[in-house]
Write a structure and sequence with these properties.
single chain, alpha+beta, 2 strands
């Protein structure tokens, strides 16, 4: 296994441990009102889902940006 694969594995394990700690420490219930849907969720889940949604949005926007940029260069 190469250095980058080992580093990726360690980073994935650390993110998993951080997520588990974040979920276990934030047990308070948050009332989330989404237009027509009302949810009662733990604070840890809300924080993790918002971070994942932000990462996904950023990745999609960067993919769109770099794909249009590479088409202009050709």
């Amino acid at each position: 296994m190469g250095f980058s694969s080992t580093l990726l594995l360690i980073l994935t394990i650390l993110v998993g441990i951080y997520s588990f700690v974040l979920l276990s420490l934030n047990k308070s219930i948050v009332h989330l009102d989404l237009l027509f849907l009302e949810l009662d969720l733990q604070l840890g889940y809300v924080i993790l889902w918002s971070a994942l949604f932000g990462i996904l949005t950023t990745a999609v926007l960067e993919l769109i940006f770099f794909s249009t940029k590479s088409k202009k260069d050709e």
